[in-house]
Specification:
223 residues, Integrase catalytic domain-containing protein, mainly alpha, RNaseH-like_sf, nucleic acid binding, RNaseH_sf
């Protein structure tokens, strides 16, 4: 026994009646017991002897519970690593599933949005965004201007001042970007038709008109 105590450095001292401690470990143990008794016993310390048994076993029970708690911990690091990998894979799977669901939702919304769009077919060299032709626009504009009859103001002056407000889209932008001001309504109308009614179309219409011939078997009103 003395060899074992000497091996672990346990030094015993001579105890007296008033100082029964024999080493530092006993000192610490006695102080812990005293603190516990002061918390659970009455101030007069008459019931210390009744609680001494519970106090002495309290530290052992705490150590025992701590031991079993540590024992229940999973100290198999390989198994813990595998479980952690599985958890990360499940998290990644949830992330991919959420991404796939959001992608499907966006496709559905896009299809719904595309179905609500009115498709328009544009031709080559088409300058206007309006559906009607420039000649039809001018005809309607003349009808509107015919209702305006201010006293002492020429009709051409009214048309030249109100015509910009009848345009929209590319035609309106074109008119406002013109570097030269128009002096007469005829100049404004001519340049407008040259811009938005191509010369090739005018030539083709002229050829069609010039190509009209009266056959021997038809009258003028039959064409």
């Amino acid at each position: 026994m003395s060899t074992l105590l000497e091996k672990y450095g346990v030094v015993h001292r001579v105890a007296t009646a008033y100082h029964p401690q024999i080493n530092e470990q006993a000192n610490v143990f006695n102080r812990e017991i005293e603190c516990i008794l002061q918390k659970v016993a009455h101030p007069n310390r008459k019931d210390w002897s009744q609680l001494l048994e519970d106090v002495c076993h309290l530290l052992v029970e705490i150590e025992h519970h701590a031991y079993w708690t540590v024992k229940r911990c999973n100290l198999a690091f390989d198994q813990v690593g595998k479980e952690r990998k599985l958890q990360l894979q499940e998290l990644e799977e949830l992330h991919l599933e959420a991404y796939e669901n959001s992608k499907i939702y966006k496709l559905k919304v896009k299809c719904f949005h595309d179905n609500m769009i009115l498709r328009k077919k544009f031709k080559v060299d088409q300058k206007m965004l309006e559906v009607k032709t420039p000649h039809k626009h001018l005809k309607e504009f003349h009808v509107v201007c015919s209702t305006m009859r201010p006293h002492g103001i020429p009709k051409d002056y009214i048309k030249m001042k109100t015509f910009p407000f009848s345009l929209v889209g590319a035609a309106k932008d074109w008119l406002y970007l013109q570097p030269v001001l128009f002096n007469t309504w005829g100049d404004m109308k001519r340049i407008f038709l040259e811009k938005f009614f191509l010369a090739s179309r005018t030539t083709a219409i002229k050829k069609e008109i010039c190509g009209i011939r009266q056959h021997t078997s038809e009258t003028l009103y039959e064409h």
